[in-house]
Amino acid sequence: MTGKKCIKCCCCREIKPLTEFCHRKAATDGYTGQCKSCDKAKREVDSDKIKARRIKYNKTHSEQNRKYSEEYRKKNPNHAEEYRLKNKEKIKDSSIKYRAENYEKIEVRQKKYRDVNKQKIRIASGKYYKQNRAKIRDQSLFREYGLEKGRYEEMLIEQNNVCAICGLAETATVSKKSAQLKMLAIDHDHETGKVRGLLCRRCNKAIGLLREDLGIFASAISYLQNNNLRTRRTA
User: Apex CA 104: angle with CA 108 and CA 142, to 5°?
Assistant: First the structure.
C-alpha cells in the first residue's frame, strides 16, 4: 500500500482523502478506484440490476454457501461469540449509528413483520416470559424504580415479608383463577422517585387515594376517632 493521503476518484475525478474510499485488498494501493459517494450513487441507479443479480447468485450458490457455512461453524464453533466479546464497543456503536440513520426503514420493517407474524410473536413472547420471569422482573424494577438486582428481596427480609404500614402479608392474588399472591407493591415518592418501602395493595392504594397528604391523613384519623367515640357513647 502506498503512503498517499488522497486519491483521485475515477468517476467524479475529484481528489479526496482516503477515508472517502473503501478498502480493497486486490488493488495496488489498497483502495477502490471510485469514492464512496460515486459508488453509492451508482448502486442507487443500478439497484434493480444489482438486486436481480443477487437473487440469481443466491439461487445458484445458496446450497454451496450453506454447506460452506455449516462446515465453517463446525470448525470454528466459538468464532461468532469470540468476535462479539472482542468488539463489543464497535458493534454497539455500529448498531446505534445504523438505527439512527435508518429509523423509519427499521420501523416499517418491524411493523410489517409484526403484522404477518402476530401468532408466532405471541407464542414466542409467552415462552420467553415463562423462562425468564425473574430476569424480566429485575429489569422492570431497575427501569421503573432504579432498584439493583436482589434489592427487592433484601427489602422483603428487612420488612419480614409484610406491609410496612399494616404489618400484614399480601392477600391479593395475581388473578381470580390463580392462588398465587402478588408481590408487595413498591411505594415511592412521585416527585423525587425515591423508593420508600414495600406495601400491600390496599395500603398502597389508600395512600394514593388520600393524595399522600399528611393533613388529609390527620383529618381521616380524627374523623374515625370521633365516630368511634360516639359509637361507644351510644352503645
Answer: 95
